[in-house]
Design goal:
Blueprint (H helix, E strand, L loop, with lengths): L1 H33 L2 H28 L4 H28 L4 H30 L4 H31 L4 H26 L7
Helix pairs in contact: 1-2, 1-3, 1-4, 1-6, 2-3, 4-5, 4-6, 5-6
Amino acid sequence: MSQQSSMHFYLNWAKERIDEMDAALASFEVKAGQAKAESKVKTDQLLSDLTKRRDEFQELLKAKAQAGEAAWADARADMERQWNGFEAQVKTYFEGAGKQLEQQQATFRDLAAAQAKAWREAADKIREAAGKVAAARTADVDAALKQMKSDASEAEARLQKLKQAGSESWSVMSAALAESRKAFDQANKAAWDALKGGDTKS
């Protein structure tokens, strides 16, 4: 169970990032369809670069999906670098594209929705796995799942507040997404640790 729980943590982590990448790409594809000729080339190049980064991330995920926990830990470091590159490229685009408030808000909404979906899906997976654990650990798993749902509600409320404000810069919106992502990672790890008996809490 320990190895399996760790694998679920890594898979949830990777899926959350891929969902955000897909949401960003979908948002930029809409923008590319609406772009004027002079900015279409730039937007198309951005889409091409971001798609390549997402595809490389997914390929690494597929290659490591059957590997053991140690291989996953190494792969996660590589995947984290690729994620950071993807995120940095989005940030650079928004910083260099001038005041594209409407596009920033649309992308933020799409990324926030992807994060909310990842929270729900991870909680569902943990609940399903919790049904298979011994009764002695049920209380720990229930507590971790309850905390995850609470953290998800808080993160979603913060992101919703920013969506409604609508006038924040991309750096503020990006920081809120990063904070939510970090909370997701911590809640995801705590829940899977509870499933395997809490022997690797950090």
